[in-house]
Design a protein that fits this description.
The protein has helices at 32-35, 40-43, 52-55, 116-145, 183-194, 211-216, 244-265; strands at residues 10-13, 19-23, 65-69, 148-156, 171-174, 201-203, 222-230, 235-236, 241-242. By secondary structure, the protein is of the alpha/beta class. The chain has a single domain, classed as Zn-dependent exopeptidases (Aminopeptidase), CATH 3.40.630. The longest helix is centred in the middle third of the chain and has 30 residues, at 116-145. The protein starts with 9 loop residues before the first strand and ends with a helix.
Length: 267
């Protein structure tokens, strides 16, 4: 890292199976010049999807394509559209370059709105490279297999009063109400959810899939699914720490889901 920049904006691993797993919110890197403008909450990148590549045990998925973002979502949110249109009209949400955390805390010391020129520059510098790689890999896998699955991997605090009431279910599946994959894949995901032991779940509840799921999902070729996990399933949320025993149980279910998606994609 030099001059406030990062050498690689994402960690990419190509595989040969008909599955790509995207981790757009797992990074917490912030350029130094930007960090100096941030509050402690902003510098801490508090809304990061903590530990997800570790939870997914990507080192075991040697033949599955994965892409992991390194910049924090506070630099630019890779799961928002480049025109910053709201994904959930009428509901509180955060934008392409967030200015407040999920709990409503200011991210910047100066609370003046970010300039359009700065947002455009961050989009070019950080948003576009991730999506260009994502698009290239999906095209490559479709050329090989004809149809593939895109799994967009996320997690969030179990309680975020600004965004939803009460506690979030453990497994939150989103396919934009079934528009990003065929009914046969939705059915298989539903069967997976019904087989969860000790976990709550919801299909297209508070989260129906963000920009990545909606934009790239083209049933029959790229079939997309967002999984938003409650962080209470694998973390001590008060300490923001990894909990090995509970995480092992969730990892088992995630790998079961991956097998379900791969089995569906082969048929």
């Amino acid at each position: 890292m030099s001059n406030g920049q990062i050498e690689n904006l994402y960690e990419f691993h190509p595989g040969q199976l008909p599955l790509l797993i995207s981790f757009p919110h797992s990074g917490d890197w912030i350029p130094e010049d930007l960090r100096l403008r941030m509050t402690p909450a902003g510098q801490a990148s508090t809304d990061t999807d903590w530990f997800l590549p570790q939870l997914y045990r990507i080192h075991e998925l040697t033949d599955v394509s994965t892409i992991i973002a390194r910049p924090s979502r506070y630099v630019v949110d890779l799961n928002r559209p480049p025109d910053d249109q709201s994904l959930y009209p009428g509901k509180v949400t955060t934008g392409l370059c967030p200015e407040r955390t999920f709990t409503g805390q200011p991210i910047y010391i100066d609370e003046s709105p970010l300039a359009a020129e700065e947002i455009a520059q961050r989009t070019r510098q950080y948003w576009q490279p991730y999506h260009q790689q994502l698009q290239r890999e999906l095209e490559r896998l479709v050329d090989i297999h004809g149809k593939v699955v895109l799994l967009d991997a996320h997690s969030i605090a179990s309680r975020v009063p600004l965004l939803f009431e009460g506690s979030l279910p453990d497994f939150n599946m989103g396919t934009q109400h079934g528009s990003t994959c065929p009914p046969s894949m939705s059915d298989r995901v539903g069967q997976f959810c019904q087989g969860l032991s000790g976990y709550s779940y919801v299909d297209n509840g508070r989260f129906i899939g963000g920009y990545i799921t909606r934009h790239y999902g083209r049933p029959s070729s790229v079939n997309s699914l967002q999984l938003e996990l409650s962080q209470a399933t694998y973390m001590d949320e008060s300490e923001m720490s990894w909990q090995a025993e509970t995480a092992d149980q969730v990892a088992h279910e995630i790998h079961r889901l991956i097998e379900v998606l791969l089995d569906w994609s082969r048929n």
